[in-house]
Amino acid sequence: MSRSPGIAGTSATARPGLRGGRPAVGVVALGIFTLMTCELLPVGLLTPVGSELGVAPGTAGLMVTVPGLVAAVSAPAVSVAGGRFDRRAILALLIGGTAAANLVCALAPHFAVLLGARIAVGIAIGGFWALGGSLATRLVPPEKVPRATAVVFGGVSVASVVGVPAGTLLGDLAGWRAAFAALALLGALATVLLVALLPALPPERPVSVATLGRLLGGDARVRTGVLVTLLLIGGHYAAFTYARPLLGDFSGVQAEHIGFALLGFGVAGIAANFAVGPSTARAPKAALVLIAGAVAAVLALFALLGGAVPGGIALMLGWGLAYGGMSVALQNWMLACAPKAAEAATALLVCAFNLAIALGALAGGAVLNAFAAPAVLWCGAALALAAAAAMAAARRPDPAP
């Protein structure tokens, strides 16, 4: 049977017959949703966690920074260390570990204990996403890969825009510890479903340190993808990590309504992901320039016009629309630039993505502690605008043979 065009290691024999297809794609998306919700849940819980455990909001932001930094390291590390192990076994082990880590978070008596558990979350995030993010090419026929990729990376968007608001609402209703406990249960469920629905996935082309080095050092377009990821994701999370104080302190949204505002952000983001996500495979450069420019514009408008409840909520919805297709567009850019090294390219993307989350949250925390809340919006807008400029100057990927 023939090999799919432009993607190494995606022979038809790699696609399972009894297990695979839509259920397998769906469970990978569930895994990424679970892990990204784990990473970003503190966005909606900064205030109650900080209040109970006695830390300032900027310090509580370390709950996002620490796993992001760890995930940036674990993405390439797990890809290399995984070697010739079956990907299904590695993915199940990683997400099962997050279930235990979130249970520790739910029971943590001190902030240091909670932060320690977040290290385990970071390891799982980087490793799972690096291996799982490129699996769409092995689970479905070539013509269905763009839609399947959008579904898998929809897990990232849905986590940001539904997982975080849902966790925030649960935290408001039952306490922040209940939100972490719910994530522990979700992680356990995702582990069972991964084992049940994902086919055996032996590595087709194991990633090595040399492979990563050649890919990053030998292709300017891959380096541009990494740079744009750092700028765009960093800018987004410099502001979004502090969405709760932005909505509450700057826009004046009542505490009990912030979860609903974030849920609106989520609905808009999901709509954008599935509306434009598959099309970004055809023109990832144009999509990224448009997305980065839209994020920069919305954040600037939020800083200018979001100082009242109507403006804050309306611009939160606009922010969700702008953000929605970001993750899948970045993945499609990296796959288009390195079609014969999908797993290695995804590992580099995940490394940059999570490093950007960590550094963005850290920068936003420093800005928030030093200035008024709108300053994080200007910071994010500037970084997103720089990302748009960098992508606009990049050479387009070569067309698939």
Give an account of the 3D structure.
This protein is mainly α. It is built from 18 helices and no strands. The protein has helices at residues 21-40, 42-53, 57-60, 62-81, 87-107, 111-132, 136-139, 145-174, 176-197, 209-218, 220-240, 243-250, 255-276, 284-305, 309-323, 326-337, 342-370, 374-392. Helix 14 (284-305) packs antiparallel against helix 16. It is globular. The two termini are 18 Å apart.
Question: Any key phrases for this structure?
Answer:
401 residues, disordered N terminus, mainly alpha, transmembrane
Terminal CA distance reads: 18 Å
* Inertia-based shape: globular
Counting helices, strands and paired strands, the structural category is mainly alpha
- How many distinct helices? 18
**Beta-strand content estimate:** under 5%
- Topology, number of strands: 0
The CATH architecture term is Up-down Bundle
State the CATH superfamily name. MFS general substrate transporter like domains
Gyration radius, in Å: 20 Å
State the helicity in percent bands: over 70%
Main beta-sheet strand count, sense and barrel state: none
Low-confidence stretches: 1-18
Protein name: Putative MFS family arabinose efflux permease
Subcellular location: Cell membrane
Transmembrane segments: 24-46, 58-78, 90-109, 115-136, 148-170, 176-201, 222-243, 258-276, 288-307, 313-335, 347-369, 375-394
Membrane topology: Multi-pass membrane protein
